[in-house]
Amino acid sequence: PVVAAAVILPDGYDITGIADSKALSPKKRETAFARIVADAALGYEVSGVAFGIGWSYPGEIDRVNILQATYAAMRRAVADLCAAPDAVLVDGLPVPNLHTHCTAIVKGDALSASIAAASIIAKVTRDRYMTEADALYPEYGFAGHKGYGAPVHLLALAEHGACEIHRRSFAPVAQTLLPI
């Protein structure tokens, strides 16, 4: 699936340990995730921290394409916030039909603490999902490669075909579905 997150951080929030999720080790991502979630659990009025999560699952991705499914997940993440934001900063391209002022920042996860925090929430959430999927489908090794096109994943696809959580529109999966 595609997982997106939206995070509200108050002015003056201690951003120690919050950075682009791709630049953090899994342990540091987990630590930052735990802190953001704990601060949000205090309540928006108390801590000023809030987060929302949005998902797009394989069927939707296959139906509308990866970009449109990503936009849908981003809109769902913003809608999942406990407080309506005045504006939204997004990494990359603006999100159509967001219904909130949106500013797109190229490489935003490296330039904005709130975008970096959202990338951490989204990545840890998806990685945990893939680890759970690994228990259901151990032959694919999802806990290790998290569903990305790693060589070991491509070998598992060739050997076992696709399972129900694979996107049929992902080229290596589509190739395993072709008649021989």
Structure described in brief:
With 180 residues, this protein is of the alpha+beta class.
Describe the overall structure.
- The protein is of the alpha+beta class and 180 residues long.
- It is built from nine helices and four strands; from the N terminus they run E-H-H-E-H-H-E-E-H-H-H-H-H.
- It has helices at residues 26-41, 44-47, 58-64, 66-79, 108-111, 113-136, 142-145, 151-160, 171-176, and strands spanning 2-8, 50-56, 87-91, 101-105.
Secondary-structure blueprint of this entry?
Elements: E1 2-8, H1 26-41, H2 44-47, E2 50-56, H3 58-64, H4 66-79, E3 87-91, E4 101-105, H5 108-111, H6 113-136, H7 142-145, H8 151-160, H9 171-176
Parallel strand pairs: 3-4
Antiparallel strand pairs: 1-2
Helix pairs in contact: 1-6, 3-4
- Output the strand order for the largest sheet: 1-2
Give helix % range.
Answer: 40-55%
Largest sheet features: 2 strands, antiparallel
Q: Structural class of the secondary elements? A: alpha+beta
Give the total of beta strands: 4
Percent of residues in β-strands: 5-15%
Count the helices. How many?
9
Shape: globular
Distance between the termini: 28 Å
Radius of gyration (CA) equals 17 Å
Name the features.
180 residues, alpha+beta, two-stranded antiparallel ribbon, two-stranded parallel ribbon, 9 helices, 4 strands, 49% helix, 13% strand
